[in-house]
Amino acid sequence: MATKKKNSNISSKQINLETNKEDAADEFLTTNHGVRINDNQNSLKAGDRGPTLLEDFIMREKITHFDHERIPERVVHARGSGAHGVFQLYESMSKWTKAGFLQDPKVETPVFVRFSTVAGSRGSTDLARDVRGFAVKFYTDEGVFDLVGNNMPVFFIQDAMKFPDLVHAVKPEPHNEMPQASAAHDTFWDFISLMPESAHMIMWVMSDRAIPRSYRMMEGFGVHTFRFINEQNRSTFVKFHWKPLLGVHSVLWDEAQIISGRDPDFHRRDLWEAIETGAFPEWELGIQLIPEADEHKFEFDLLDPTKIVPEELVPVRRVGKLTLNRNPDNFFAETEQVAFHVGHIVPGIDFSNDPLLQGRLFSYLDTQLKRLGGPNFHEIPVNRSIAPVHNNQRDAQARQTINTGRVSYEPNSLAGGCPFQASVKNGGFASFQERVDASKVRERSASFHDHFSQATLFFNSQSEAEQRHLINALRFELGKVEVQAIRKRMIGILSKIDAGLASAVAEGLGLPVTKPERPLNQSFGADTNPKSVQPTDASSTIEVSEALSMENTVKDSIKSRKIAVLIADGFNGDQVSVAKETLLKQGAVLKTVAPHLGAVLAADGKALPADFSFFTTASVLFDAVYVPGGSGSVETLAQNADAIEFVNEAYKHCKAICSVGEGSKLLEETRVPTDGSDRTIIIAETYPDANNGFVKAIAQHRNWERG
Ligand code: HDE
After folding, report:
1. Confidence class of residue 536 from pLDDT cuts 50, 70 and 90?
2. Contact 485/190 with Cβ under 8 angstroms?
3. Residue 530: CB atoms within 10 Å
């Protein structure tokens, strides 16, 4: 037992995350001011049955701290999960940018990434139908660079002015605070039906992209066009992408809703467990480069955040890899307090005039001041730059740095002029000198007026199953809307995207297909705005873009896929161990599920512990199901309603199912076809016979033909 409390070195210039870690091993309990506590069970009272005394500074300190433990949750993106990692380049980007961390493939840049949903509050489910935030903080030698993106490449609105309206519309309705973490309600669709510029984003949000299988299986996008600036001060427009090495995969909406009840932390747990078990999530950084001279060459405006640059027009070049390899030590200190800001950029990167990006440049700093209590949030360990910080900013709420000396101004002679400005040659940040010569106006450029052509491009690029899911999502969402006029207005908008889409959704809602309402302009208030304009009728020269469909994603591995092995006493031990060995080698995760926890006896008498019982897990939490033989086991399972339900649900959710030996008897009790008509249902006598088909079926992710 330690006898003396260690003093931390408060004079050190940069306190990093490591030195800030508390190690309570072998230490006494103390107050926040270091006084050792002798009784942490009882408050100080006048007699053992008497009133508590005001002088109990120990209890008051403890409870006061507790009372103040919460900070405001993020106004959007409140629900999230984060992880540490590294970023490493494949090739130098020096031709386009002078950003230090994009020069040398040998350099590893530390990162912190936070994924999030948008609409729900901090404790809401991970599986809401929603956009996912994908925010990356690069701790570069030249300062912090934040790439604050989403898992969808476009946004609902074109101008930051509309953001509070959008968020008010999607959040739970103010009179009754319902529904939580869901866009399926009147105020959201009322707003959307009056904002045709959201048509493209609505296609993405109603697609399966909005219900990812895992954070590890999502793409990321910077959304806006940014600029790269090279040593010669030449600017190149750039769009950022993150491409997951496991491919882009989603769950079914029915499944998402069940997961929300069974395990609302599904994505958080998946990320945590993958990192803990060494299956580190990986993405490649992709960039699309567009020379300044080509700015006006496209049929859309590069500054319009409701448009993508189709990969057919500008290919995505993969230039580096992001690997997440360490879970946070403390959720609040790191994931909750991490402060992203699109305005955190480094020399070599600059902004474009995208009006949404320009508004964000204000919002993120403002929001941190509110959430984190003042302008010193950069001193919170997770937000600290690894590049040294020297300036004359002082004081304010909860200042950590103890600045020494009497000089806190510039120019000065008393400190030898330090710290002094850095020339561009010495890494000083200088904004790109874009020429601006225009009148001040509140206007939307005519080049932003095509709202539908890329919505149509997205819909046309989806596979048949994806289109089916998208139609069902709209039927669900609009089906929850109560005001008929809103539904009708949305059918009008959908008819501008695709006639088949509009009539399929209308049929589900029991409505006729209506023509879009006139005027189809920004909002009802547009009458008072003489500058409001009708969306233009345009069509994309590209009819189908492969990159937009998840059908074309990576499907070559079963790495980290979760397989449920259903067993009961009497199971065939060999069939479990052979399958386990083979599948684990390929990186899958196998868990046994049995009617009860504890030891399950194989037919040969050997015991295997059950990882879960049918009570403690659910079919929706797995990617595939394996039913080994063993007549005792299969007889028990075939009479167990939960086991039958488990298999039926896996079938409904299009998952691979494999049975070996007597295992097929369980399948006969379910809806699963055992006649070979479904190539992702594998029935074999031995596991080795089943292996190839089973692995291929799991790697396919899902057999979408089923649902
Ligand atoms: Fe955000 N956004 N946003 N956003 N956003 C926030 O900042 C905002 C937008 C995004 O994990 C807030 O710290 C405005 C687009 C992510 O901590 C806030 C506008 C994109 C995160 C804010 C947008 C994003 C946020 C809330 C329109 C994709 C979570 C808490 C002009 C490119 C970051 C916070 C994290 C968070 C404002 C639009 C991504 C209020 C005003 C477009 C990933 O500042």
Report:
1. confident
2. no
3. 6
Q: At the top level of CATH, which class does the domain 449-550 belong to?
A: mainly alpha
In DSSP notation, 345-362 reads: --TTEEE---HHHHHHHH
Distance CA 628, CA 569 (A): 12
Residue 363 Cβ inside 6 Å of ligand 1? The answer reads: yes
CA of 102 relative to ligand 1 center, distance in Å: 25
Quote the DSSP letter at residue 250: B
Task: Give residue-wise pLDDT tens across range 135-153.
Answer: 999 999 999 999 999 999 9
What tokens appear for 160 in the block? 């930051």
Active site residues: 77, 150
CA of 456 to the centre of ligand 1 (A): 27
153 lines ligand 1 (CB under 6 A): no
CATH number, span 45-383? 2.40.180.10
**Å from CA of 59 to ligand 1 middle:** 39
Indicate the pLDDT class of residue 1, thresholds 50, 70 and 90. Answer: very low
**CATH 1.20.1370.20: which residues of the chain?**
449-550
> What are the tokens at 547?
């990159």
- Half-sphere exposure at residue 23, Cβ-oriented, CA atoms within 13 angstroms: 10
**Residue having the nearest C-alpha atom to atom 43 of ligand 1:** 133
Q: What's residue 7's pLDDT?
A: 36
Ligand 1 atom having least distance to the Cα of 367: 44
- pTM score, two decimals? 0.95
Lowest mean pLDDT: which of 46-50, 165-169, 440-444, 536-540?
536-540
Cα dist. 590→396, 435, 504, 611 in Å?
52, 60, 40, 9
Structurally, at CATH architecture level, domain 555-706 sits in: 3-Layer(aba) Sandwich (3.40)
Cβ neighbours for 563, distance < 8 A, ≥ 6 positions apart: 583, 588, 589, 590, 591, 622, 623, 624, 625, 626, 698
